[in-house]
């Protein structure tokens, strides 16, 4: 890892933050992150359990919002004599949020670097990938779901697979969703436009806020099936 603009894929986000902080020499660090990413979240929304040279902002809601993205952009345009590293960390960044950040990522102000940290590579838009290097530190161990032939998806296979996943919890379902996303992208059998890719981000966020895992899975598969090439 380095303190330069990049997207880091990591399942241990708090540990990754600490590793980045340890790389600091004389840079200023601003962190904007979701509350569940901290083992001891702050009661007032900021600054708890971080080094004095780090300005940490914990988002009000678990989902990283457009307002949070707007705040990151505002921080980027604040005048500074020192290099400022702006780190954004969340379990998922929606396509709306990523598009809000696109311009500042493409043309950051002088002495500003952006680092995005998230566990799921599949949720990062191609427009972001084309502008920032992707660094994979760790990925979820994918649950054995090889009985699902994603490239041959049909109503019958969706129904049969969903029946096998009725007892799958939210954490394990994230691995299933990640697997489906990878298979869909490599199969070439689906029209994966930006709206379709956003389905995976929405699925991760739905699992984070407590939606029933089997409902999330069924919704994702049916919407993905609708995008299958004929």
Task: Write a concise keyword list for the protein shown above.
alpha/beta; 230 residues; 6 strands; Rossmann fold; 2 domains; single chain; six-stranded parallel sheet
Describe this structure in words.
- The chain is α/β, with parallel strands linked by helices.
- It has two domains: 6-136, Rossmann fold (3-Layer(aba) Sandwich); 150-226, no CATH class.
- The chain is 41% helix and 13% strand.
- The chain contains eight helices and six strands.
- The chain has a six-stranded parallel β-sheet, with helices on both faces.
- The protein is elongated, with a radius of gyration of 18 Å.
- Mean pLDDT is 86; it is low at 140-144.
Q: What is the annotated CATH architecture of the largest domain?
A: 3-Layer(aba) Sandwich
* Average of the residue pLDDT scores: 86
User: How many structural units, i.e. domains?
Assistant: 2
Instruction: Note poorly predicted spans.
Output: 140-144
**What is the general shape?**
elongated
Q: Kindly, what is the distance between the CA atoms of the first and last residues, rounded to a whole number of angstroms?
A: 43 Å
**What structural category characterises the helix and strand content?**
alpha/beta
Strand % is 5-15%
CATH structural fold name of the largest domain: Rossmann fold
CATH class of the largest domain: Alpha Beta
Order of helices and strands: EHEEHEHEHEHHHH
CATH superfamily of the largest domain: P-loop containing nucleotide triphosphate hydrolases
Number of strands: 6
**Largest sheet geometry:** 6 strands, parallel
Number of DSSP helical runs = 8
Instruction: Kindly provide the radius of gyration, computed on alpha-carbon positions and rounded to a whole number of angstroms.
Output: 18 Å
Q: How much helix is in the residues?
A: 40-55%
- Biggest sheet strand order reads 3-2-4-5-1-6
